[in-house]
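Support request, please re-run this one:
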Amino acid sequence: MQKHFSITQSTGDIAKETILKTVVFGLVDEMLEFREAVNSRFTPALDYRMTLQADTEITPLAKEEGARADYQTASWFDVSGTLQTYQNALMFTDETKARQMGNVQISTSLDACARGLAKKKDYNIMTALTAGVGDTHSASATWDDAVASDPAQDIAEAISSMLANSNMSARQIADVKLFVPASVWPYLSKPVQVGEIQKEIRTWAQDAYNISFYPTRLLTTNCLALVKSDRTAIIIEHDGSKLPSIETFRNHGVGDGYIFTQAFDAKVMPNSKTDATSNLIYNITGVSA
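Re-run finished. Output below.
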């Protein structure tokens, strides 16, 4: 017998929990639509606090011969928050197993559980990014308009704004991620004329800027462009050390129970202490009706 989170379990129970954790949370990561928007950071606590440097650059001072340059003091500010805990509790009855439907029910239920957790996490990330938009402009027309729309110009304007209003480097253009409504995704295959060559808009943007596109069902009328970086936004997740992410139990006479728990919070790294937005996040409105 082994001790796990102060509950006595058999080695078999722990092995089962480890497998279930790998399967379910692996599915969650696969299903995330905003997986490529933010990096994950883990904490053993539910409350977090981070200290960010207010100065985006510290200018070096000219040094006189035989003397030391004056000390400079960096400015800092804090951001904080609390992880929200979400839980799925499932019960598979003995009657289900007796009808030899157990494997099917468990498989489909675990898939649905993972999809639900992924949706919660996606919504948390999308909400944080939307609230943290640093600049925005309206699309020339909805991107499904073959005549009036100009997605290439809209995308170029977004990148131009991020370059002009932040410390984003030319190298970081390759880290730009574009999240577009799923409804307009097919229209990004529309060809654009580049010199004497026609290219799909997605291909043109990837060739010109090396940026990546991701369809999402959470955005309906707008498109989010951002630089994937710890200085843009992160998702903070509980590491499971004090909050069990998976528990199994036997409800005698009824069936087997499974509890899946995750705690997380997406956080935008603001431009300054008095700001809640990031110039590394850009919003294009009106891409879809």
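DSSP finds five helices and 16 strands in the chain. The domain at 2-51+84-129+232-268 is CATH 3.30.2400.20 (Major capsid protein gp5 fold).
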